[in-house]
Design goal:
Structural class of chain A: alpha/beta
Radius of gyration of chain A: 26 Å
Strand order of the largest sheet of chain B: 1-2-3
CATH superfamily of chain B: Cytochrome-c3 Hydrogenase, chain B
Low-confidence stretches of chain A: 1-8, 216-237
CATH superfamily of chain A: NADH:ubiquinone oxidoreductase Nqo5 subunit
Largest sheet of chain B: 3 strands, antiparallel
Radius of gyration of chain B: 23 Å
Oligomer: heterodimer
Distance between the termini of chain A: 65 Å
Number of helices of chain B: 18
Number of domains of chain A: 1
Strand content of chain A: 15-25%
Largest sheet of chain A: 5 strands, mixed
Mean pLDDT of chain B: 83
Shape of chain B: globular
Helix content of chain A: 25-40%
Order of helices and strands of chain B: HHHEEEHHHHHEEHHHHHHEEEHHHH
Strand order of the largest sheet of chain A: 1-2-5-4-3
Mean pLDDT of chain A: 78
Shape of chain A: globular
Structural class of chain B: mainly alpha
Largest interface: A-B, 58 and 64 residues
Number of domains of chain B: 1
CATH class of chain B: Mainly Alpha
CATH class of chain A: Alpha Beta
CATH topology of chain A: Beta Polymerase, domain 2
CATH architecture of chain B: Orthogonal Bundle
Order of helices and strands of chain A: HHEEHEEEEHEHH
Helix content of chain B: 40-55%
Chain lengths: ~240, ~425
């Protein structure tokens, strides 16, 4: 593995950008100017936070100037940690416990909600992750549909799952969920009802078979034999 | 009863000639407005008259959610004028299982059981990018032997998926035999996957830092034999399906995806390569698994129609078998697991990992806050984007071609709905 050898030879920064990506980032900065709020490399891919009013222009620049013709996805994230359930001393380690303090990811954020997208080029082998903050009270972002027609379904998904609206989107309708569905399931404060009704069983989830005394060898043999005789008795009928 | 008018003879003959190219996407048909009867679109004045007389307005046809051609529960609401589609609106979500939410309630090792069920025909390939994301965030790497076995199993899932497609595509245009061949030939590959992992469809074989088990004894030779049958199967399908006159008539110049538009819609994988885009993440993406060590060709086709998609997948099946044979020859020895802590905690950070899956680009955007489970996982599945082009692609085509196009795009419902 060339990759393996490289990492063994020198503990290089895993985030460092290669030369084409560095150029890509520089050109994006030159085109967008102060609309770039923050930028940070993340495992070789530039992550750029765009000012709210330049979100669509960023897509245009990415598509036209930077040759990122391929829209990989658009999605959103809710940085507010989910309210803690259960008691802290519980020995149940099966469910992950997230830290309760609010921290933001790569390239930062100025609020709870963020829309992020990944675009890449099919002929230049580079890609770019773009982020934009969403005002928690307005819950509105600029739509990418005029630039990437494929943004349609992705934005419908964001609207449905997070409640983020997109201006100029042709029809924000429910995508996965029934049209009467209320709530936005991927928000952190949306309760996963199945877990409330019954907690995740945890690491050990082995039940004894019916009619089988747990972990008792001779008894299990007996039960097996009884089952067989039942079967043979039932056959003539 | 509002029976639609039957397509006239002229329209039928047009369906098998090049004029259909113009029909899919370009005006005057490329509009979601109610279609005006344009005399220029009829070859004979008589046709127009017949159509005007029988004009009964649009008919709405619900294709699915249980239609066999939708491979599951995809529903497409098609508005028809006669046999021609005016607009098509795919309605998804009948299989939505909320995996992105569920991942937030599970630990990293538990999540692999979920993502096995995204694209259930090539489950092993689904696991790879997620495991890679966790490994890169933790700064560990699986040993070379594990990477090679992962690559082999990924390519085997590709062959299994495509063999089924190559047979099933015949079924979509009315040929029953290839479907049986597809299922039969796929079985050889599934047996191998089962022998190595224990599961035919849901291997759940990857572990963060390596693999669950080493290969069973004799598996390498069995695989070599099975690759021979895979090559034979490809030859059969090339003869039986791709070389068939009726198949060509039904698929040539049907459902053309222009390269630029396809990319802007996020169409990826074989579907995009069939539109002439020479882009394969195995070769062009960030190096992953053992792909830098193998020599393979990326197949493209300039046409972008249903036939091209079939042809590209046919070639890619052979290429995948060649990759497997190469990897078997180079398979290194050594451990299959690297050292990982008993309770896996992934350091704070976020990462985007993408791989070339059988259906196209599959990726995970994992955000970790240092806990035993991820804070957020965005699952980018190939079929979702591949199918999102349908409203554009189905506009103006005829009803039988809808089925051909659906078949040739080759999506898995679990991969759309997640």
């Amino acid at each position: 593995m060339s990759e393996l050898k490289d990492t063994e030879a020198e503990p290089a920064d895993p985030h460092a950008l290669d030369e084409p990506h560095a150029r890509l980032l520089a050109r994006l900065g030159a085109e967008l100017g102060d609309a770039v709020l923050e930028q940070e490399p993340c495992f070789g891919i530039p992550v750029v936070r765009i000012r709210r009013d330049s979100w669509r222009r960023a897509a245009e620049v990415a598509k036209v100037t930077l040759d990122c013709d391929f829209l990989s996805f658009i999605s959103a994230i809710d940085w507010q940690p989910a309210p803690k359930e259960g008691d802290e001393d519980s020995s149940d380690t099966s469910s992950p416990v997230q830290p309760q303090d609010v921290t933001y990811g790569v390239a930062g954020s100025d609020g709870r909600f963020q829309v992020f997208a990944h675009v890449q080029s099919t002929f230049r082998n580079w890609g770019l992750t773009l982020k934009v903050d969403v005002d928690e009270h307005a819950m509105l972002a600029e739509s990418w549909v005029p630039v990437y027609p494929g943004a349609d379904w992705h934005e419908r998904e964001c609207w449905e799952m997070f409640g983020i609206s997109f201006d100029e989107h042709p029809a924000l309708r429910h995508l996965y969920l029934p049209s009467q569905f209320e709530g936005h399931p991927l928000r952190k404060d949306y309760v996963l009802l199945s877990r409330v009704v019954k907690p995740w069983p945890g690491l050990v989830d082995v039940e004894a078979m019916p009619d089988e005394p747990a972990a008792d060898e001779p008894a299990a043999d007996d039960a097996e034999g009884a089952g067989e005789s039942d079967d043979s008795g039932g056959d003539p009928e | 009863m509002n029976l639609p008018p039957r397509a006239s003879e002229a329209e039928r003959s047009r369906a098998s000639t090049g004029e259909r190219v113009a029909a899919s996407g370009v005006s005057p048909l490329a509009t979601s407005e109610p279609m005006e009867l344009d005399p220029r679109s009829f070859r004979h004045l008589a046709d127009m008259q017949v159509n005007v007389e029988l004009d009964t307005g649009d008919m709405i046809l619900n294709l699915g959610p249980q239609h066999p051609a939708t491979h599951g529960t995809l529903r497409i609401v098609v508005r028809l004028d006669g046999e021609r589609v005016i607009s098509a609106d795919p309605i998804i979500g009948y299989m939505h299982r909320g995996y992105e939410k569920l991942t937030e309630f599970r630990t990293y090792p538990q999540i692999t059981t979920l993502i096995n069920r995204i694209d259930w025909l090539s489950s092993f390939a689904n696991e790879v990018p997620f495991i890679a994301a966790a490994e890169r965030l933790m700064g560990i790497e699986a040993p070379p032997r594990a990477l090679y076995i992962r690559t082999i199993l990924t390519e085997l899932s590709r062959i299994a998926t495509f063999l089924l497609f190559l047979g099933e595509m015949g079924l979509q245009v009315g040929a029953l035999t290839p479907a049986f061949y597809g299922f039969r030939d796929r079985e050889h590959i599934l047996n191998l996957i089962e022998a190595a992992t224990g599961g035919r469809f849901h291997p759940n074989f990857n572990r963060i830092g390596g693999l669950k088990d080493d290969l069973p004894w004799g598996w390498v030779n069995d695989t070599r034999t099975a690759m021979k049958t895979a090559f034979d199967a490809c030859d059969t399908f090339e003869d039986l399906v791709a070389g068939n006159e009726i198949f060509e008539a039904r698929t040539r110049s049907i459902g053309i995806i222009p390269a630029e538009l396809g990319a802007a819609y996020g169409v990826s994988g074989s579907n995009l390569r069939a539109s002439g885009v020479d882009w394969d993440l195995r070769r062009d993406g960030k190096p992953y698994l053992a792909y830098p060590e193998v020599d393979f060709r990326v197949w493209t086709h300039p046409d972008g129609d249903s036939f091209a998609r079939y042809w590209v997948r046919l070639q890619e099946t052979r290429e995948a078998a060649r990759i497997v044979l190469q990897l078997l020859d180079q398979l290194p020895s050594g451990p299959i697991m690297t050292k990982v802590p008993l309770i896996i905690k992934v350091p704070q950070g976020e990462i985007w990992v993408e791989t070339e899956n059988p259906l196209g680009q599959m990726g995970y955007y994992v955000v970790s806050k240092g806990a035993t489970g991820p804070f957020r996982v965005k699952i980018r599945s190939a079929s979702f984007s591949n199918v999102s082009i349908l409203p554009w692609l189905l506009r103006g085509v005829y009803v039988p071609d809808v089925i051909t196009i659906l078949g040739s795009l080759y999506f898995i419902l679990g991969d759309i709905d997640r």
